[in-house]
Amino acid sequence: MHKDFRVGRFTYKASSPSILHQTASAASTDMSLTSVLFPNENCTKKQKECLESPKGDTFDIPIKRLEAISFYLQNLEIPPSIITQKRGEALFLKIGCVKCHRPFFELDDGSKVRAFSDILLHDVGEGLSDGRSEFRATPREWRTAPLWGIAKYIRASNNKAELLHDGRAKSIEEAILWHGGEAQEIKNTFMNLSARQREDIIQYIKEL
């Protein structure tokens, strides 16, 4: 199989260059299912029986099924964004959140996708380090999480949301306060706002 190196856009560490690759990666990592993109069993070095087990001539997930799942993911409805919290919007811009949580992308046809992410890796500090590297992403680096639809996710989880890459944050404010590294100065500015201003930003994020 031909191998090359591409810029990633998907997964927490931006390690997948396409939705198809991310789908195959999740199948391998989460369910130990082989595919044309991940043909080897997901065995650790100590799992000798797994490593030495007979290998079949076919993959667990055929390419057509991977393509079908990818098609479904690519065609999910974009969460609506109805902004009423103008004070929060102005503060979100003023303190610098938009440096990473970029409000929109403009497509070739002129339409705008309001994902609130730059889809890039950033060093967000030792507090959020997971202690491991993934391709060229360091333990402290994470892809900027898109904020669109975050309120819908919180409602769907009965207000018991698990935010950030490992679910440690139970609220939007807690997720903000875990930021460090490149976001340290912005976090400090957020902490020095009044309680009303912080709440305005949080309510604005819930409208994205």
Describe this structure in words.
The chain has 208 residues and is mainly alpha-helical. The radius of gyration is 20 Å and the shape is globular. It has two domains: 19-74, no CATH class; 86-205, Orthogonal Bundle (Cytochrome Bc1 Complex, Chain D, domain 2). Strands 1-2 form a two-stranded antiparallel sheet. Strands 3-4 form a two-stranded antiparallel ribbon. The mean pLDDT is 89. The chain has helices spanning 19-31, 48-52, 63-74, 86-94, 150-156, 172-177, 184-191, 195-205, and strands at 105-106, 112-113, 121-123, 141-143.
Report a brief summary of the structure.
By secondary structure, the protein is mainly α.
Structural features:
Cytochrome Bc1 Complex, Chain D, domain 2, 208 residues, two-stranded antiparallel ribbon, mainly alpha
What portion of residues belong to β-strands?
under 5%
The CATH topology label of the largest domain is: Cytochrome Bc1 Complex, Chain D, domain 2
Do you know the CATH architecture of the largest domain? Orthogonal Bundle
**Under the CATH scheme, which class of the largest domain?**
Mainly Alpha
Residue-averaged pLDDT, rounded? 89
Overall body shape: globular
What's the Cα radius of gyration? 20 Å
Helix-strand sequence? HHHHEEEEHHHH
Residues in helices, as a percent range:
25-40%
Number of strands: 4
Low-confidence stretches: none
Number of helices in the DSSP assignment: 8
Measured distance between first and last alpha carbons: 41 Å
Total separate domains: 2
By oligomeric state, this entry counts as single chain
Task: Give the helix/strand class.
Answer: mainly alpha
Please give the order of strands in the largest beta sheet.
1-2
